Structures are given as C-alpha cells and as structure tokens.
Amino acid sequence: MALETPVCDFGQAAIDFALPGTDNKIWTLEDCRGENGLLIMFICNHCPYVKAIMDRLIRDTNELKQLGINSVAISANDVADYPEDSFDNMKTVAEQNGFSFPYLYDESQEVAQAYGAVCTPDFFGYNKDLKLQYRGRLDASRKEAAPADVRRDLFEAMKQVAQTGHGPEQQIPSMGCSIKWRAA
C-alpha cells in the first residue's frame, strides 16, 4: 500500500538509537551525525519506490556529505513476510550500490515506531542541533524515476539546512510502500 509522509514537525528532536549496520558495527545517533546535520532515511531492499531512486539517493547523500550533512539508512521491515529485506540481503544491497553511509537494521521496529516512519522511503532531515527541518520527498520520482532534470527537493532542502539551520516551509511529502510491521 502506498502512503505519504506527514507534514514536517519542525524542531522535533532526533531520537537516539543503537542499531547494527551492514558493516557489523553498532551505530548510534551521535556516530551518524554530521557537522551541519543528519539525514535519516527509512528504506528497504524490495520497495519499487526506493529502487527507482537508488542512484539519486546515493548521488545526493554523497553531495550532502560535502556540505557537512551525514546520512544513515534504516530498514525496519518484517523480514518474516519480506525475506528480500533480510539483514544478509541488506549487506548485499549496500555493497552492490556502494553505500557511503551506514545501513542499519531495526529488527525490533522500535526505532521506526519512535520516529513515526510510515513508508519507504521516509526522509527525516535534521540540522546541526538534531532538530527536524525536512520531512519531504527526494524528488518527483514515484515507482519510476522522474526526468533527470527534475528539481532535487531533498538535496536543495538539506543544502538550505546546512547553510541556515532551517528547512523550507513548503515541503512535498515523500511517497512509498508502507513499512511492513510485524503482526502484534
């Protein structure tokens, strides 16, 4: 089921976590933060919305790193129902795509729930004080990549955050597959 992210709750504090990465290291919020901010991305391996933007996601996170914005990706899907999203497959996806950011596994789904993540991809852009400034889309891509010359919404917003500490007032929600929660 395709969902849209809610409106940005400006100033909401980032929530700490300690999650295993595909590099076999345990990563915390502090480990991930950059000098000018942090982009937290809830993604997964199987989602067509994520697959459609993978090359753009890698391009934008690499360029944001040059601006002092680090990135981290978290997968929280129920792997019992979605085995393509398993930790071993996450390692393969990270390696095949040359991730320059940590790719973390939220097996308990507690981190995704704490953040209020609803879909993949779901982007949370924080300033240097780890206060939320962006909760929008990467660009106009959906299940297929948008034209190459499309506005880079996330990149432009996070560039503004790096420069001013504040995200744009107008943000277009991200859209993607629902997070695959485990049955209660």
TrEMBL record:
Coiled coil: none annotated. InterPro entries: AhpC/TSA (IPR000866), PRX-like1 (IPR047262), Thioredoxin-like_sf (IPR036249), Thioredoxin_domain (IPR013766). Pfam families: AhpC-TSA. GO terms for molecular function: antioxidant activity; oxidoreductase activity. It comes from the Bacteria. This is Alkyl hydroperoxide reductase. It comes from Methylophaga nitratireducenticrescens.
